[in-house]
Amino acid sequence: MKTSQLFTKTSKTAPADETSRSAELLLRAGYIYKEMAGVYDFLPLGMRTLQNIIQVIREEMNALGAQELTMSTLQSKAVWEASDRWSDEVMDVWFKTKLNAGGEVGLAPTHEEPFTRLMKSYISSYKDLPIYVYQFQNKFRNELRAKSGIMRTREFIMKDLYSFCIDRKQHEKFYEEVAKSYARIFDRLGIGDKTYRTFASGGSFCKFSDEFQTLCEAGEDIIYIDKESGIALNEEVLTDENLENLGIKRENLTEHKAAEVGNIFTLGYKYADALDLNFNDESGKRQKVFMGSYGIGPSRVMGVIAEMLSDDKGLVWPEEIAPYKYYLVGLGEEGNKKAAELHDKAPELVFFDDRDARAGEKFADAELMGMPYRVVISDKTLANNQVEVMNRKTGETKLLTLDEFEHKLV
Ligand code: ATP
Ligand code: MG
Q1: Nearest residue CA, atom 13 of ligand 1?
Q2: Cβ(163) to ligand 1 under 6 A?
């Protein structure tokens, strides 16, 4: 990619109506565009970053043996009435609309009901189970307050995984595998050291659910971490009884602000009951399917990463999710010619700042956009057959030979 090809431009001024650091930087660097409060577009750089986050999650979901699909965003009223969640009193974030042909539909806030109904067509015997299915899908929630840019929006991307098991035992084994998978995902995304598996309030079949909470000042949740064991609890489950059961002393807890980046739930028979999802066991007896659901918000995760890993100069992306790996700057006529050549070798890895602009302006944009390495080729480095590579995160600078750098581009 070249600056001259990219329609977005960076901006020096912070938008007046954004209070979070991540939103300010993502808007200024041209990663996102604000349509209205709580609704954002992902522009080319932002889209690539989001897709890279999604790809990390996808690889880990596939490694669990889960199958990817896409469910519809328009949802039928009937399927939600079956579980008694169509009413605005029960589900207070619905966006609903009327069909010209008569009747109502909802815009997906989540997908437990449609997945449960779908599986009625495919699950009949114990031999069909377990089934693990997931999707990356736009969700719509009429949140009272949009907050912190893409961290809490009214339209957002969710990875939702659902498990269908023969019993609790089979479910619990998978549930723990998902928890490990989530830990790997957040490690790969560069926020593993700040992300805690956290006891939170559960559904009807389980005392707790597990949230994955990333320590972050812009987060909306309060969690408590036990210094000794590393066990974390959401404030909503901080009771004397729970502390005692977990063997934790209140005085050992530290309080933190955190953002929920994912969560995993034991649903049990709630939806199988509501929608009659059954199977025949080995003896031919009808049994209910035992379910779980597992969410991650890739768009919120992108906001949290931008919030956590940025510095006073701009964004700082981990290599695995950066839109481009190298921000390439050519100085002088020969430097620019060589830079253009190198870019053409690997336009998917290299973002070439080919503007006719001062070096300082290019360096400032390199810092704002947050590509992991800034590479400078000047007439001077070229005379020694070298390029200068600066690590965006550490500021460390190294000289590589042109050959060495070219090898990195294949
Ligand atoms: P929260 O308590 O933050 O509202 P939630 O409990 O409603 O989250 P889930 O319904 O379990 O969240 O959704 C799964 C994941 O989707 C969350 O862990 C989060 O990463 C993401 N998510 C939820 N709501 C939003 C939102 N309004 N904007 C962006 N991401 C969201
Ligand atoms: Mg919510």
Answers
A1: 295
A2: no
**Nearest ligand to the C-alpha atom of residue 143:** 1
Q: Residue length, the chain?
A: 410
Residue 83 near ligand 1, beta carbon < 6 Å: no
Reported as half-sphere exposure (CB side, CA atoms, 13 A), residue 293 has a value of: 21
pLDDT in tens, 35-67: 999 999 999 999 999 999 999 999 999 999 999
Cβ atoms < 10 Å from Cβ of 264: 24
Q: Is pLDDT of 261 > 60?
A: yes
Of 160, 258, 252, 266, residue with least CA distance to 210: 266
The string of DSSP codes covering 302-359 is: HHHHHHHH-BTTB----TTT-S-SEEEEEEHHHHHHHHHHHHHH-TTTEEEE--S--H
Q: How confident is the model over 198-238, as pLDDT tens digits?
A: 999 986 566 899 999 999 999 999 999 998 899 999 999 99
- Give, using CA atoms, the residue closest to atom 22 of ligand 1: 297
Whose alpha carbon is nearest atom 21 of ligand 1? 297
* Tokens, residue 335: 């430097």
From the CA of 93, which ligand is nearest? 2
Alpha carbon distance 277, 142 (integer Å): 29
3-state secondary structure of 46: helix
Residue whose structure tokens are 């930087």: 25
* 8 A C-beta contact, residue 147 and residue 220: yes
Tell me which of 257, 260, 299 to substitute to probe ligand 1's pocket, judged by most ligand atoms within 8 Å of the beta carbon. Answer: 260
| 76 φ, ψ (degrees, to nearest 5) | -80, 140
Return the DSSP state at 147: B
Contact 371, 326 (CB under 8 A): yes
User: Cα 391 to chain center, whole Å?
Assistant: 24
Mutate to test the pocket of ligand 1, among 158, 197, 222, 299 (most ligand atoms within 8 A of CB): 158
